[in-house]
Amino acid sequence: MKYIISGTNRPNSRTLVVAQLVQQLYRDQGESVEIIDLSKISLNALDGTQYGDKGILPPPIADAIHKINTAEGVIVICPEYNGSYPGALKLFIDHWKYPDTFEHRPICMVGLGGTFGGLRPVEHLQQVFNYRNAYVFPNRVFLTNIWHNLKDGKMTDPNLMGLLRLQADRFSVYVRALQNEKMDANSILAVKKP
Ligand SMILES: Cc1cc2nc3c(=O)[nH]c(=O)nc-3n(C[C@H](O)[C@H](O)[C@H](O)COP(=O)(O)O)c2cc1C
Q1: Are strands 73-79 and 135-136 parallel, antiparallel or unpaired?
Q2: How confident is the model over 4-18, as pLDDT tens digits?
Q3: Atom of ligand 1 nearest to the CA of 15
Q4: What distance in angstroms lies between residue 119's CA and the mean position of ligand 1's atoms?
Q5: pTM higher than 0.90, yes or no?
Q6: How large a percentage of the chain has pLDDT more than 90?
Protein backbone atom coordinates (compact mmCIF):
# COMPACT_ATOMS: atom_id res chain seq x y z
CA MET A 1 0.00 0.00 0.00
CA LYS A 2 1.15 3.51 -0.83
CA TYR A 3 0.03 6.46 1.27
CA ILE A 4 -0.49 10.05 0.21
CA ILE A 5 0.02 12.62 2.95
CA SER A 6 -2.17 15.67 2.44
CA GLY A 7 0.33 18.03 4.04
CA THR A 8 -1.81 20.62 5.84
CA ASN A 9 -4.48 20.54 8.54
CA ARG A 10 -6.32 23.50 6.98
CA PRO A 11 -9.96 22.45 6.40
CA ASN A 12 -11.07 22.38 2.74
CA SER A 13 -7.50 22.80 1.52
CA ARG A 14 -6.43 22.73 -2.10
CA THR A 15 -3.77 20.29 -0.93
CA LEU A 16 -6.46 17.70 -0.20
CA VAL A 17 -8.00 18.23 -3.65
CA VAL A 18 -4.59 17.63 -5.25
CA ALA A 19 -4.13 14.54 -3.03
CA GLN A 20 -7.41 13.14 -4.39
CA LEU A 21 -6.33 13.79 -7.99
CA VAL A 22 -3.01 12.07 -7.36
CA GLN A 23 -4.77 9.14 -5.67
CA GLN A 24 -6.85 8.63 -8.81
CA LEU A 25 -3.70 8.60 -10.98
CA TYR A 26 -2.26 5.75 -8.90
CA ARG A 27 -5.59 3.92 -8.91
CA ASP A 28 -5.66 4.21 -12.71
CA GLN A 29 -2.40 2.22 -12.70
CA GLY A 30 -3.98 -0.44 -10.47
CA GLU A 31 -2.05 0.67 -7.38
CA SER A 32 -3.53 0.63 -3.86
CA VAL A 33 -3.23 4.06 -2.33
CA GLU A 34 -4.84 5.73 0.67
CA ILE A 35 -4.81 9.38 1.77
CA ILE A 36 -3.67 10.46 5.23
CA ASP A 37 -5.46 13.77 5.72
CA LEU A 38 -3.70 15.89 8.36
CA SER A 39 -6.95 17.77 9.01
CA LYS A 40 -8.54 14.51 10.24
CA ILE A 41 -6.02 13.05 12.68
CA SER A 42 -6.43 15.38 15.69
CA LEU A 43 -2.97 16.94 15.56
CA ASN A 44 -4.24 19.46 18.13
CA ALA A 45 -4.13 16.65 20.72
CA LEU A 46 -0.32 16.77 20.60
CA ASP A 47 0.82 18.77 23.63
CA GLY A 48 4.54 18.09 23.69
CA THR A 49 4.41 15.04 25.99
CA GLN A 50 4.17 12.49 23.17
CA TYR A 51 7.63 12.84 21.59
CA GLY A 52 9.90 9.80 21.55
CA ASP A 53 9.38 6.11 22.22
CA LYS A 54 7.63 6.55 25.57
CA GLY A 55 5.01 9.03 24.40
CA ILE A 56 1.47 7.69 24.07
CA LEU A 57 0.08 9.02 20.83
CA PRO A 58 -3.63 9.74 20.29
CA PRO A 59 -5.04 6.76 18.31
CA PRO A 60 -5.65 8.56 14.98
CA ILE A 61 -2.05 9.80 14.93
CA ALA A 62 -0.62 6.45 16.04
CA ASP A 63 -2.67 4.77 13.32
CA ALA A 64 -1.42 7.20 10.65
CA ILE A 65 2.21 6.67 11.69
CA HIS A 66 1.71 2.91 11.74
CA LYS A 67 0.48 3.14 8.15
CA ILE A 68 3.59 5.03 7.10
CA ASN A 69 5.77 2.52 8.96
CA THR A 70 4.40 -0.15 6.63
CA ALA A 71 4.08 1.97 3.46
CA GLU A 72 5.75 0.70 0.31
CA GLY A 73 5.91 4.34 -0.76
CA VAL A 74 4.81 7.73 0.54
CA ILE A 75 3.68 10.66 -1.60
CA VAL A 76 3.69 14.03 0.17
CA ILE A 77 1.48 16.77 -1.22
CA CYS A 78 2.92 19.93 0.24
CA PRO A 79 1.62 23.50 0.09
CA GLU A 80 3.83 26.52 0.59
CA TYR A 81 3.14 28.33 3.87
CA ASN A 82 5.37 31.35 4.51
CA GLY A 83 8.18 30.11 2.31
CA SER A 84 8.27 26.58 3.72
CA TYR A 85 6.05 23.61 4.47
CA PRO A 86 3.23 23.84 7.04
CA GLY A 87 4.06 23.58 10.73
CA ALA A 88 1.34 20.93 11.07
CA LEU A 89 3.31 18.67 8.72
CA LYS A 90 6.52 19.14 10.74
CA LEU A 91 4.64 18.44 13.97
CA PHE A 92 3.37 15.20 12.45
CA ILE A 93 6.80 14.20 11.12
CA ASP A 94 8.43 14.95 14.48
CA HIS A 95 6.30 12.19 16.03
CA TRP A 96 7.47 9.56 13.54
CA LYS A 97 9.74 6.78 14.68
CA TYR A 98 13.38 6.86 13.66
CA PRO A 99 14.65 4.86 11.85
CA ASP A 100 11.55 2.76 11.02
CA THR A 101 9.33 5.46 9.53
CA PHE A 102 12.05 7.17 7.53
CA GLU A 103 15.02 5.01 6.63
CA HIS A 104 14.97 3.53 3.10
CA ARG A 105 11.32 4.57 2.74
CA PRO A 106 10.59 5.71 -0.85
CA ILE A 107 9.23 9.28 -0.70
CA CYS A 108 7.82 11.32 -3.58
CA MET A 109 6.86 15.00 -3.42
CA VAL A 110 4.41 17.38 -5.03
CA GLY A 111 4.49 21.09 -4.16
CA LEU A 112 1.76 23.67 -4.63
CA GLY A 113 1.72 27.41 -4.23
CA GLY A 114 2.09 30.63 -6.18
CA THR A 115 4.76 31.52 -8.73
CA PHE A 116 7.22 28.91 -7.47
CA GLY A 117 4.71 26.07 -7.12
CA GLY A 118 5.92 24.96 -3.72
CA LEU A 119 9.59 24.68 -4.69
CA ARG A 120 10.74 25.96 -1.28
CA PRO A 121 8.64 23.63 0.91
CA VAL A 122 9.56 20.64 -1.23
CA GLU A 123 13.27 21.46 -0.98
CA HIS A 124 12.96 21.94 2.78
CA LEU A 125 11.22 18.58 3.06
CA GLN A 126 13.91 16.97 0.92
CA GLN A 127 16.51 18.15 3.45
CA VAL A 128 14.58 16.45 6.25
CA PHE A 129 14.07 13.17 4.39
CA ASN A 130 17.61 13.08 2.99
CA TYR A 131 18.99 13.65 6.49
CA ARG A 132 16.84 10.77 7.76
CA ASN A 133 18.03 8.43 4.95
CA ALA A 134 14.76 8.07 3.08
CA TYR A 135 14.85 7.32 -0.65
CA VAL A 136 13.78 10.68 -2.02
CA PHE A 137 12.43 10.25 -5.55
CA PRO A 138 14.09 12.87 -7.77
CA ASN A 139 11.14 13.71 -10.05
CA ARG A 140 9.32 16.46 -8.14
CA VAL A 141 6.23 18.28 -9.43
CA PHE A 142 5.56 21.96 -8.70
CA LEU A 143 1.99 23.11 -9.16
CA THR A 144 2.35 26.83 -9.85
CA ASN A 145 -0.36 29.49 -9.49
CA ILE A 146 -2.58 26.94 -7.87
CA TRP A 147 -5.44 29.42 -7.42
CA HIS A 148 -5.81 29.55 -11.22
CA ASN A 149 -4.74 26.06 -12.16
CA LEU A 150 -7.03 24.13 -9.82
CA LYS A 151 -10.74 24.65 -10.41
CA ASP A 152 -13.73 22.52 -9.35
CA GLY A 153 -11.55 19.61 -8.31
CA LYS A 154 -9.58 19.51 -11.56
CA MET A 155 -6.22 20.78 -12.82
CA THR A 156 -7.07 23.12 -15.66
CA ASP A 157 -3.52 23.09 -17.04
CA PRO A 158 -3.04 19.82 -18.97
CA ASN A 159 0.73 20.21 -18.76
CA LEU A 160 0.63 20.09 -14.93
CA MET A 161 -1.70 17.09 -15.02
CA GLY A 162 0.73 15.37 -17.41
CA LEU A 163 3.60 15.98 -15.00
CA LEU A 164 1.60 14.47 -12.13
CA ARG A 165 0.77 11.41 -14.25
CA LEU A 166 4.40 10.95 -15.33
CA GLN A 167 5.58 11.24 -11.73
CA ALA A 168 3.02 8.66 -10.56
CA ASP A 169 4.06 6.22 -13.30
CA ARG A 170 7.75 6.60 -12.57
CA PHE A 171 7.42 6.53 -8.80
CA SER A 172 5.62 3.18 -9.00
CA VAL A 173 8.46 1.80 -11.13
CA TYR A 174 11.03 3.22 -8.67
CA VAL A 175 9.27 1.54 -5.73
CA ARG A 176 9.12 -1.80 -7.58
CA ALA A 177 12.81 -1.58 -8.49
CA LEU A 178 13.77 -1.03 -4.83
CA GLN A 179 11.48 -3.90 -3.76
CA ASN A 180 12.96 -6.23 -6.38
CA GLU A 181 16.44 -5.60 -4.97
CA LYS A 182 15.11 -5.73 -1.38
CA MET A 183 16.48 -2.25 -0.77
CA ASP A 184 13.23 -0.65 0.38
CA ALA A 185 12.34 0.01 4.03
CA ASN A 186 9.85 -2.86 4.30
CA SER A 187 12.31 -5.45 2.95
CA ILE A 188 15.07 -4.20 5.24
CA LEU A 189 12.80 -4.11 8.32
CA ALA A 190 11.60 -7.66 7.55
CA VAL A 191 15.20 -8.91 7.72
CA LYS A 192 15.92 -6.95 10.92
CA LYS A 193 12.72 -8.13 12.67
CA PRO A 194 11.84 -11.57 11.33
C1 LIG B 1 -0.65 30.30 6.28
C2 LIG B 1 -0.44 30.35 4.80
C3 LIG B 1 0.75 30.83 4.28
C4 LIG B 1 0.98 30.86 2.90
N5 LIG B 1 2.19 31.28 2.42
C6 LIG B 1 2.45 31.17 1.10
C7 LIG B 1 3.75 31.49 0.59
O8 LIG B 1 4.66 31.84 1.33
N9 LIG B 1 3.96 31.38 -0.74
C10 LIG B 1 2.97 30.95 -1.60
O11 LIG B 1 3.21 30.84 -2.81
N12 LIG B 1 1.73 30.65 -1.14
C13 LIG B 1 1.45 30.75 0.17
N14 LIG B 1 0.21 30.42 0.66
C15 LIG B 1 -0.80 29.98 -0.28
C16 LIG B 1 -0.90 28.47 -0.42
O17 LIG B 1 0.30 27.90 -0.89
C18 LIG B 1 -2.04 28.20 -1.38
O19 LIG B 1 -3.19 28.75 -0.81
C20 LIG B 1 -2.34 26.77 -1.77
O21 LIG B 1 -3.70 26.75 -2.09
C22 LIG B 1 -2.15 25.66 -0.81
O23 LIG B 1 -2.74 25.87 0.43
P24 LIG B 1 -4.01 25.04 0.96
O25 LIG B 1 -3.72 23.60 0.72
O26 LIG B 1 -4.07 25.41 2.41
O27 LIG B 1 -5.21 25.47 0.17
C28 LIG B 1 -0.04 30.42 2.02
C29 LIG B 1 -1.26 29.97 2.54
C30 LIG B 1 -1.46 29.91 3.91
C31 LIG B 1 -2.76 29.36 4.46
Answers
A1: unpaired
A2: 999 999 999 999 999
A3: 25
A4: 12
A5: yes
A6: 97
